[in-house]
Amino acid sequence: MTSRERRKHVRIQRQFEARLLNAKFSYETEGLTQNISQSGVYVKTRDWRLFQSGDQAIVTLFLPPSFTDRDKIFGLRGNAIVRRVDKQNEGVALEFSRDFQEFEKVDHSELALERRYKEISHYLRSFSDLEFADLIRANPHGFLVNKSKNELSSNAVFQFNTLSLDDDHAMQVIKRDFSIDSVHKATVMEVRKRKFDTAKNTITVGRAATNDIVIYDNLVSKSHAYLYLHPSGQGCYLVDCGSKNGTLLNGKVLKSFVKYKIVDCDEICFGPQTTTVYFSSISFANFISELRTAHPLSDS
Known about the structure:
Layout: H1 3-9, E1 17-22, E2 27-36, E3 40-44, E4 56-63, H2 65-68, E5 74-86, E6 91-96, E7 104-107, H3 108-113, E8 118-119, H4 120-126, H5 129-138, E9 143-146, E10 162-164, E11 170-172, H6 180-185, E12 187-190, E13 202-206, E14 213-214, E15 225-229, E16 236-240, E17 247-249, E18 252-253, E19 260-262, E20 267-270, E21 274-279, H7 281-294
Helix pairs in contact: 5-7
């Protein structure tokens, strides 16, 4: 075995934070590395269902100062191909498209500024019904759709009625006189954990980058609120964390550290400027389907 081959098979048995982008869907998720070699990496991620063997991906590995002797975290980013999806251990094995030493070096502060959330137009354009089913399975706790003043018009784009469906999920019916362009530009925040910590049943919300759901609004507290996921699967609850500017549920100011159950179509305000609408996973799929049918998105 040559020295180059030996280097290729040397593995680093250490956990680093990693970011994976599925190039096919432009869908991004996070995870932890289990081992790294010159030729590939194994990443443990809760979103392993969104990848299939042969998918093209972009992987970014975050190396801490203790490993690099630098004064801050920096990222190494490069292309890869998914070689194996490990259902049992909930991970993805990737083969690098080029030598690991040739990866692009990216400053961590630059990565932190990259937009984390996609617009509704992305979901309309990128997912077939079958592919969307995979996304729903990976996001069983639902979605928050942003209707902030800087995103949507003050005419309340989301003016819906609640319908009872056969599966007992509610959905919002799109009015025919709303601003379709505003809806397409609304951002979607997936209600799921991005951190690997011990609080398995909580999704943190706030301005700080360490939250699961980061809201880029100076009037939102660093640790503003959290969503509590009942272990039995019997619902999602909203909890304000003593935020400076408050959390509202359907116009009602929440008491701090008290659980309030949320259901489809509930309007949640994090501070005075950021307003979101909660969708369960099935309702979000129905919403996208209705929107696609009523107002097909132009490819131009």
